[in-house]
Write a structure and sequence with these properties.
There is one protein chain. The protein is α/β, with parallel strands linked by helices. It has three domains: 93 residues, Beta Barrel (Elongation Factor Tu (Ef-tu), domain 3); 108 residues, 3-Layer(aba) Sandwich (Rossmann fold); 47 residues, Dihydroorotate dehydrogenase B (pyrk subunit), domain 3. It has six helices and 15 strands. The longest helix is centred in the C-terminal third of the chain and has 14 residues. It starts with a strand and ends in a 7-residue tail after the last strand.
Amino acid sequence: MTRKFKEEAVIIRQEEIANDIYSMWLHTDQIAESAQAGQFVGVYCRDGSRFLPRPISICEIDREDQAIRIVYRVAGKGTDEFSYMRTGMPLYVIGPLGNGYPKRTEKAFLIGGGIGIPPLLQLAKELDCEKEIILGYQNRQVFLSDQFEQYGNVHIATQDGSLGVSGNVLDVIRDKQLEANVIYACGPMPMLQALKRYAQEKEIECWISLEERMACGVGACLGCVCKSVHKDEHTHVNNKRICTEGPVFDAREVEIG
């Protein structure tokens, strides 16, 4: 298991890259050295009334400069507080947390939906294979797509049909008749459920990253469990802790509908 660190990181830079979507680079002394694609960090608010850290996926890792990038949506008071922070400000962070994506060498689909897109960027950089990258957005407010273009063939779907293929990520696969041997995905639950069914039909490997509200983020509180096919070694029931056994799972191992 990856060793976790709690440290005072320093904001290198921050910018709004779409409506209420922010990109923040953080200098860390230790987290960047051991972080893996698909893992996340817990970011602590400076406001002491908000005690628990906010779980945010790691978007990019710069080991040479000891930095990580997080991309988050303003969804509550905690992330709203982060959005007002500026270069040079300190921020306590714990991580890296959870398990990342395994790296295969077969042709891959990298499929992200909404705020589930950012954690796939580091994976796209690290995978040594042919990649079809499918990104799903609500509308023309896209983000990160230009950076993904450096690492594979990028296809865009928008729910309102304003850009790319009209519809969802599976509509892109069908419309362009794309094929791959393994799926890596992160996004809303309906998307992951559909991809699990697609992978079963095609008999291909599928790795999904689950999102869930978390409290401790380190597996102690059992507040972020999902149903699993096999019994968990910690609880001895058919549960998996998303913060520790996940957030990345073999889709065959979890019951998500």
